[in-house]
């Protein structure tokens, strides 16, 4: 589980966005985190401590005079157990208090007394957000090393539209997960292809394959969490764009090739995960091919699609290239053979039919020094391991000519 072993203090301050924290708590608990809820008095006007207790599975603290703490040191004890404090929603008033080190309730005292990182997720009306005092306070807390997540822009509970909306629970969850990841790819630009391609036969039919895109999307997410700038070129899949990733959708192998060739000069690392169709129909019909009695069956001439990975690897100054290979048998032989043929330093092999569409995967790393099998793992956690392996091998951006 993504946040297994992590202990979070989740602080709620007064704002209508408190309703989002019920869902955020559920996501954090499901990911394995221990979530200790602390609320300001104002927050309890928006969502009840009973709801938050039920969702977090732990008693909720509101007052610094809470008699349940035997030593009456809630402000110390709660923060010492925490790997991070997350204040969400963080109101205008609470951010102002943080900027000045004020501590007149349990949550603010806890923040001032902490010895762990603090993340705040602002939520307020757009005028309150734009107010120069708020902007000064936000700049001050950032300067003090406090991580500010968001805010988002869009429609607000008050009916106005603008900056200040709290990040959605899923985006807040993603930002918290990313916060805990070491930034091993900071400053690196990573280009990734993912999913299948779709080669049309006519305007409604086409040839595709069973790649779900899950592995490529998981790698894009893990690379972004590791601090990389990620450009994801995706074939037709129905997956949400990972948080912080720039996504470009394409359909055909040729479109994927064009998109990659355009972006590759800006990439330090290229990871080709897409299951690209080897062939396309030479002249796809402009009209739907009709079935009619007595008509001969349709037949098609195929032409070969460009090999995107091999083309990038052949460039004069290629990024660090990583290939993927799905094989149905004899992975050991085909993996290393394919790595050499495509001329890439690292190829990640898996037994394709066993992994397509699944949430877990088992892979072998092929490189000049030999083959290394990795244990079967959930694709998200495996992606993190693979990003670690790629980061170890890829030259750091800017070091080639220094
Ligand atoms: O399909 P094949 O087994 O050759 O794929 C191996 C690797 O080459 C994968 O990383 C895949 O994304 C890449 N590839 C490509 N363009 C193709 C075919 C494969 O980039 N036309």
UniProtKB/TrEMBL annotation:
<dbReference type="InterPro" id="IPR035929">
    <property type="entry name" value="CoaB-like_sf"/>
</dbReference>
<dbReference type="GO" id="GO:0071513">
    <property type="term" value="C:phosphopantothenoylcysteine decarboxylase complex"/>
</dbReference>
<comment type="similarity">
    <text>In the N-terminal section; belongs to the HFCD (homo-oligomeric flavin containing Cys decarboxylase) superfamily.</text>
</comment>
<protein>
    <recommendedName>
        <fullName>Coenzyme A biosynthesis bifunctional protein CoaBC</fullName>
        <ecNumber>4.1.1.36</ecNumber>
        <ecNumber>6.3.2.5</ecNumber>
    </recommendedName>
</protein>
<comment type="function">
    <text>Catalyzes two sequential steps in the biosynthesis of coenzyme A. In the first step cysteine is conjugated to 4'-phosphopantothenate to form 4-phosphopantothenoylcysteine. In the second step the latter compound is decarboxylated to form 4'-phosphopantotheine.</text>
</comment>
<dbReference type="GO" id="GO:0015941">
    <property type="term" value="P:pantothenate catabolic process"/>
</dbReference>
<dbReference type="GO" id="GO:0004633">
    <property type="term" value="F:phosphopantothenoylcysteine decarboxylase activity"/>
</dbReference>
<keyword id="KW-0436">Ligase</keyword>
<dbReference type="InterPro" id="IPR007085">
    <property type="entry name" value="DNA/pantothenate-metab_flavo_C"/>
</dbReference>
<feature type="binding site">
    <location>
        <position position="338"/>
    </location>
    <ligand>
        <name>CTP</name>
    </ligand>
</feature>
<dbReference type="GO" id="GO:0004632">
    <property type="term" value="F:phosphopantothenate--cysteine ligase activity"/>
</dbReference>
<comment type="pathway">
    <text>Cofactor biosynthesis; coenzyme A biosynthesis; CoA from (R)-pantothenate: step 2/5.</text>
</comment>
<keyword id="KW-0479">Metal-binding</keyword>
<keyword id="KW-0288">FMN</keyword>
<dbReference type="InterPro" id="IPR003382">
    <property type="entry name" value="Flavoprotein"/>
</dbReference>
<feature type="binding site">
    <location>
        <begin position="306"/>
        <end position="309"/>
    </location>
    <ligand>
        <name>CTP</name>
    </ligand>
</feature>
<dbReference type="GO" id="GO:0046872">
    <property type="term" value="F:metal ion binding"/>
</dbReference>
<feature type="binding site">
    <location>
        <position position="288"/>
    </location>
    <ligand>
        <name>CTP</name>
    </ligand>
</feature>
<comment type="similarity">
    <text>In the C-terminal section; belongs to the PPC synthetase family.</text>
</comment>
<dbReference type="GO" id="GO:0010181">
    <property type="term" value="F:FMN binding"/>
</dbReference>
<comment type="function">
    <text>Catalyzes two steps in the biosynthesis of coenzyme A. In the first step cysteine is conjugated to 4'-phosphopantothenate to form 4-phosphopantothenoylcysteine, in the latter compound is decarboxylated to form 4'-phosphopantotheine.</text>
</comment>
<feature type="domain" description="DNA/pantothenate metabolism flavoprotein C-terminal">
    <location>
        <begin position="185"/>
        <end position="392"/>
    </location>
</feature>
<keyword id="KW-0285">Flavoprotein</keyword>
<feature type="domain" description="Flavoprotein">
    <location>
        <begin position="6"/>
        <end position="176"/>
    </location>
</feature>
<dbReference type="InterPro" id="IPR005252">
    <property type="entry name" value="CoaBC"/>
</dbReference>
<feature type="region of interest" description="Phosphopantothenate--cysteine ligase">
    <location>
        <begin position="190"/>
        <end position="402"/>
    </location>
</feature>
<dbReference type="InterPro" id="IPR036551">
    <property type="entry name" value="Flavin_trans-like"/>
</dbReference>
<dbReference type="GO" id="GO:0015937">
    <property type="term" value="P:coenzyme A biosynthetic process"/>
</dbReference>
<comment type="pathway">
    <text>Cofactor biosynthesis; coenzyme A biosynthesis; CoA from (R)-pantothenate: step 3/5.</text>
</comment>
<dbReference type="Pfam" id="PF02441">
    <property type="entry name" value="Flavoprotein"/>
</dbReference>
<keyword id="KW-0456">Lyase</keyword>
<feature type="binding site">
    <location>
        <position position="324"/>
    </location>
    <ligand>
        <name>CTP</name>
    </ligand>
</feature>
<keyword id="KW-0210">Decarboxylase</keyword>
<feature type="binding site">
    <location>
        <position position="342"/>
    </location>
    <ligand>
        <name>CTP</name>
    </ligand>
</feature>
<dbReference type="Pfam" id="PF04127">
    <property type="entry name" value="DFP"/>
</dbReference>
<keyword id="KW-0511">Multifunctional enzyme</keyword>
<feature type="region of interest" description="Phosphopantothenoylcysteine decarboxylase">
    <location>
        <begin position="1"/>
        <end position="189"/>
    </location>
</feature>
<feature type="active site" description="Proton donor">
    <location>
        <position position="158"/>
    </location>
</feature>
<keyword id="KW-0460">Magnesium</keyword>
<feature type="binding site">
    <location>
        <position position="278"/>
    </location>
    <ligand>
        <name>CTP</name>
    </ligand>
</feature>
């Amino acid at each position: 589980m993504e946040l297994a072993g992590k202990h979070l203090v989740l602080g709620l301050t007064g704002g209508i966005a408190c309703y989002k924290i019920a869902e955020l708590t559920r996501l954090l608990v499901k990911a394995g985190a221990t979530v200790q809820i602390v609320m300001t008095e104002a927050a309890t006007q928006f969502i009840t401590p009973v709801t938050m207790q039920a969702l977090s599975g732990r008693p909720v603290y509101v007052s610094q005079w809470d008699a349940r703490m035997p030593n009456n040191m809630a402000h110390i004890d709660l923060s010492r157990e925490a790997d991070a404090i997350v204040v969400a929603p963080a109101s205008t008033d609470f951010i102002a208090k943080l900027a000045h080190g004020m501590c007149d309730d349990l949550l603010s005292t806890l923040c001032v007394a902490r010895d762990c990182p603090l993340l705040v997720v602002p939520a307020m009306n757009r005028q309150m957000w734009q107010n120069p005092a708020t902007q000064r306070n936000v700049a001050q807390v950032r300067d003090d090393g406090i991580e500010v997540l968001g805010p988002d822009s869009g429609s607000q509970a008050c009916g106005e539209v603008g900056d200040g909306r709290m990040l959605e629970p899923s985006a807040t969850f993603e930002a918290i997960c990313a916060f805990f990841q070491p930034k091993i790819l900071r400053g690196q630009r990573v280009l990734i292809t993912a999913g299948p391609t779709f080669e049309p036969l006519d305007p409604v039919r086409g040839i595709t394959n069973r790649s779900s895109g899950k592995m490529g999307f998981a790698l894009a997410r893990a690379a972004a969490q590791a601090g990389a700038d990620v450009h994801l070129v995706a074939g037709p899949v129905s997956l949400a764009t990972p948080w912080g990733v720039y996504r470009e959708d394409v359909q055909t192998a040729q479109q994927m090739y064009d998109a990659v060739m355009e972006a590759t000069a800006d990439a330090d690392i290229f990871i080709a995960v897409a299951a690209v169709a080897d062939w396309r129909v030479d002249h796809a019909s402009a009209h739907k091919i009709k079935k009619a009695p007595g008509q001969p069956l349709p037949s098609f001439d195929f032409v070969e699609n460009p090999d995107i990975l091999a083309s990038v690897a052949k460039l004069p100054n290629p990024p660090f290239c990583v290939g993927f290979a799905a094989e149905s048998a004899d992975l050991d032989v085909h993996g290393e053979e394919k790595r050499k043929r495509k001329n890439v330093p690292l190829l990640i092999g898996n037994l394709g039919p066993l992994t397509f569409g699944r949430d877990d995967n088992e892979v072998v790393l092929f490189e000049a020094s030999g083959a290394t099998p990795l244990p079967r793992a959930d694709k998200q956690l495996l992606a993190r391991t693979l990003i670690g392996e790629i980061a170890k091998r890829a030259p750091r951006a800017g070091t080639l000519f220094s």
